[in-house]
Design goal:
alpha+beta, disordered C terminus, phosphatidylinositol transfer activity, Phosphatidylinositol transfer protein N-terminal domain-containing protein, START-like_dom_sf
């Protein structure tokens, strides 16, 4: 098992991020969909669990063409679908990714805490155990200056080039922008990755960790550069957008080609 904690400082407030994240998630889903594969939103509804209230989502990711070749070679057809359950009780969220074929032998579980006026300095934001702290790797993501795969680069999604007309934020050219920018908040994402498959466990877990890192970086670059698209939206605006996105995804899965880049092979 790999335990990574990603800390992602962002040039926005905690309340703004809630809307921004949901907006970016809706549009990122469209990038992953087409040609018979993609994201299917099965449930998106309010939930209550004791004193905890939030939004529950259940999604199916049909992305077989973008998993490592070594896994495709040994897995039967249809066994590579991922099932995601998420409980979004913002500012705390929990997400569980599993696979029906591997059952308890595969999981990616991550917990997120969004902290206002934080610059990534909290050492144990999610209050994990001493045992897990010993295994945890802390990774601070700089959305402006960290490298991303050349195939994922888009000038209009580069925080070093983007200037928000609505908020006057950006471009994030200063190497120390995380220390000085206002407003600021940090996403603390604790990720547990487990893949129990004899002979390839370590290799696949490392691949998954690298993929998660890239996805988090790309997603938050987009989120910042889409500021003028989501800024000023309400949660009700987002719910309306999500309903429309579900319709679009259902249609896109059955037509055209997959838009998103392949995740690569081992």
């Amino acid at each position: 098992m790999i335990i990574n904690e990603y800390r992602i400082p962002m040039n926005c407030t905690q309340s703004e991020y809630q809307v921004a994240q949901l907006y970016a998630t809706a549009f990122a889903s469209k990038e992953q969909t087409g040609g018979g594969e993609g994201v299917e939103i099965v449930k998106n509804e309010p939930y209550e669990k004791g004193s905890e209230k939030g939004q529950y989502t259940y999604k199916i990711f049909r992305l077989a063409s973008r998993v490592p070749a070594v896994v495709r070679a040994v897995a039967p057809a249809g066994a590579l679908d991922l099932y995601e359950e998420a409980w979004n009780a913002y500012p705390y969220c929990k997400t569980v990714l599993k696979n029906g074929y591997m059952k308890d032998s595969f999981s990616i579980v991550y917990e997120t805490l969004h902290v206002d006026e934080s610059r990534g300095e909290i050492e144990n934001a999610l209050n994990i155990s001493k045992e897990d702290l010993k295994k945890r790797n802390v990774i601070i993501i700089d959305i402006a200056h960290d490298k991303i795969p050349s195939g994922d680069y888009k000038p209009d999604e580069d925080p070093k080039l983007f200037k928000s007309e609505k908020t006057n934020r950006g471009p994030l050219t200063d190497p120390d922008w995380q220390k000085t920018v206002e407003p600021v908040m940090t996403c603390y994402k604790l990720v547990y990755i487990e893949f129990k498959w004899f002979g390839i466990q370590g290799k696949v877990e490392a691949f998954l960790a690298k993929t998660v890192h890239t996805l988090f970086t790309k997603f938050h670059r987009q989120l910042f550069c889409w500021t003028d698209k989501w800024y000023g939206m309400t949660i009700q605006d987002i719910r309306d957008l999500e309903a429309k996105t579900k319709q679009d995804l259902d249609a896109k899965r059955n037509e055209g080609e997959i838009v998103a880049n392949n995740l690569g092979d081992l």
